[in-house]
Specification:
alpha/beta; 8 helices; cobalt; carbohydrate metabolism; Ribul_P_3_epim-like; eight-stranded parallel sheet; EC 5.1.3.1; binds D-xylitol-5-phosphate; TIM Barrel; 215 residues; Ribulose-phosphate 3-epimerase; globular
Length: 215
């Protein structure tokens, strides 16, 4: 069964705590928290203080998707604020191995994120070390964009690699998810889907989550 991680990027920011509570009751499996700094991506969202304020509204795991220039400098603040999974981009100029080591040492899970133009082979040496690989199916920065179908090959490759080497990482997909694309990524081997505008754009969160799980 696929896990659903609603992206708060499309939630009502004026009542974010209530949105977190509502989406938890509606059957979400994780909470996806998109952090943007206006440099790594051309948009700015929220920081660790907001995460800390909304953390108490749910017992689910929170994943911080860090779309920022210096994830090595800031990840700990999100961890301290209550993030359970720290996601950083392979495209960010950091020592990937050291960052993975530091996050694990803190007792948190690591997610490595891959942008649409980046070749999936770049993750090869990290696959034995990470807990989640997140395949971006839109260019990061904004919700509500169209799914880029060519990324499905990356999911299939990851699924093959983990079977071949007995790796334990989960495959997550983020961007442009609706019933149709959810079904495509599920067939390709995805375990977690992030959905923002498709869930929060509908009044009945519970129904959308349920349908996303079974489509
Ligand atoms: C985009 C973010 C996504 C975004 C997805 O940069 O990483 O998590 O919220 O939004 P939708 O589901 O609307 O494509
Ligand atoms: Zn995201």
């Amino acid at each position: 069964m696929i896990l659903i991680s609603p992206s708060l990027l499309s939630a009502d920011f004026a009542v974010l705590g209530k949105e977190v509570r509502k989406i938890t009751k509606a059957g979400a499996d994780l909470i996806h928290f998109d952090v943007m700094d206006g440099h790594f991506v051309p948009n700015i969202t929220f920081g660790p203080m907001i995460l800390s304020a909304i953390r108490k509204y749910s017992n689910l795991s929170f994943e911080a998707h860090l779309m920022i220039e210096q994830p090595d400098r800031y990840w700990k603040r999100f961890s301290d604020a209550g993030a359970d999974i720290i996601g950083f981009h392979i495209e960010s100029r950091v020592n990937h191995n050291r960052l993975i080591h530091d996050i694990h040492k803190e007792g948190k899970k690591v997610c490595i994120v891959v942008n649409p133009p980046t070749k999936i082979i770049t993750t090869e040496k990290l696959l034995s070390k990470v807990d989640v690989v997140l395949v971006m199916t839109v260019n990061p920065g904004f919700g509500g964009q169209k799914f880029i179908t060519s990324n499905i090959k990356k999911i299939e490759w990851l699924d093959k690699e983990r079977k071949k080497h007995n790796y334990n990482f989960l495959i997550e997909v983020d961007g442009g998810i609706n019933y149709e694309t959810a079904s495509l990524v599920k067939q390709a081997g995805a375990d977690i889907i992030v959905a923002g505008s498709f869930i929060f754009g509908n009044k009945n969160y519970k129904q959308v989550i349920k349908k996303l799980k079974c489509c």
